[in-house]
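Our collaborator T.R. sent over the components below with a one-line note: 'Predict the complex.' Nothing else. No constraints on interfaces, no templates requested, no preferences about which chain binds where. So this is a plain run: every listed entity goes in together, and whatever single assembly comes back becomes the starting point for the next discussion.
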Amino acid sequence: MSMATEKKTVGFIGLGIMGLSMAGHILDGGHDLVVFNRTKSKADDLLAKGATWAASPGEVAAVSDIVITIVGYPKDVEEVYLGNGGIVECARPGTILIDMTTSSPELATRIARLAEARGLAALDAPVSGGDVGAKAGNLAIMVGGDEKAYRAAMPIFDLMGGKIVNMGPAGAGQHTKMANQIAIASTMLAVGESLSYAAAAGLDQTALIEVIGTGAAGSFLLNGLGPKMVSGDYAPGFFVHHFVKDLNIALAEAARMRLDLPGLGLAKSLYDKLVADGFGEEGTQALYRLYTQLAEA
Amino acid sequence: MSMATEKKTVGFIGLGIMGLSMAGHILDGGHDLVVFNRTKSKADDLLAKGATWAASPGEVAAVSDIVITIVGYPKDVEEVYLGNGGIVECARPGTILIDMTTSSPELATRIARLAEARGLAALDAPVSGGDVGAKAGNLAIMVGGDEKAYRAAMPIFDLMGGKIVNMGPAGAGQHTKMANQIAIASTMLAVGESLSYAAAAGLDQTALIEVIGTGAAGSFLLNGLGPKMVSGDYAPGFFVHHFVKDLNIALAEAARMRLDLPGLGLAKSLYDKLVADGFGEEGTQALYRLYTQLAEA
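Returned assembly:
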């Protein structure tokens, strides 16, 4: 029997908009799925399709071959893994633990060390691709941790992801995600400022995106979020307050590595202002609101 | 006889690396070419192929149906157009003047006004695509100015460019190029900071570019200049000091429009430092030197 068809018991903790789609793919892949979520009602559809409910992260871990988590903040990750009755305490030796939350690289290495001491293997495996990628099962998955555990988890990763890469030891997945968010941060400034300048200069912003979007100034964000800025569509694809969480982690890691990233710092200060102004529940393209304010001031 | 095959006398002023290729395409297109350049020897190949030398910008203008300029700085543009014995003074009524230098939108509108008063039409038509695009004849050409003159010049633009757009009245071409450079400015920070973080975190930078380059963090610059940063290849595609010229124009225009663009300001301060450190003759990807210095400090 190949790895790809071996039936596992997979525990899944965190049934937000991403987690729900990802857990559904695992169930559809023929595995036994055991779930826990703070709000139980979110699990209803999965339970109706055959998943099993467990009363706590520890109870999920105790019965699973592989435990996947995708929760909110690093403090949530720390609690479900390292808290009393948590995953590391309750998992059976040999279990593979996979945190897919975007979280702190430092925490990821700490969990991996404590897990290893109990005969477990922990991978950090944050994703990109958003709710669309989660639903389509083609997320990019950036993995850090033990190569053997990575290979063993691959059939499960394959159900959720398209591009799946082991970027190095524990923490490397989170570091990769941070490098991704750092690139996004200043590129958002690039898009907002270019469109803001265009508006002030009286240019047709849509024509501008078309002209510059395929050349050296082009980016996924200019072509994808630029038109939303132009039309004032600030509906969330990726929430401002989630992005601020990520930027906080990135800045803390950069500071720990004594790395000065002024573009990241600037982006963080602008997104903080956006949250302070009451726009944390909008999409990251709402950064453009600040440039509109500046122009009107 | 269609516009595309009507033979014109085209004047061309400014035979730098871009201008030489562009003028060559016009000659190859069957038009009469009259050239002037500060350093005459740069014209040797064109003269050998049949172009005619003129002793000054004014002498070029006096015999041409269309005059094209692509010189260094706004002060050079001002001199060749508005100086004594310059283009606006010497061109015959009906002549179309096209400045393809990346220059000041304010200057472009001033030239257009003065040209119109003398029965001339002036277009601002800066390009993107670099020496590669100039050689291949597929530059993006961003045009501002009178629609009728734009249409009349189209057969000549077609010889040099691929994507050619009239973005609005005089100055709109330069404004479009500025919006392009503003988008590039902060995206360069994005690429430099992401790769700098990756190096500090011990990630394989080439693998990083591959993983994040096709997702939301992806950009033409990450995929094109990122690998050069990684390998320390700072050979110029686009010179730092030319980029600083453009950023200065963009900042001056933004200030004139009372527009606060903090990402642009930050990029300008970093590129100024790069010039002060002696790297003005390198390519714009040399920005990465600053992050290496910061990491080593």
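Summary for T.R.: The domain at 175-296 of chain A is CATH 1.10.1040.10 (N-(1-d-carboxylethyl)-l-norvaline Dehydrogenase; domain 2).
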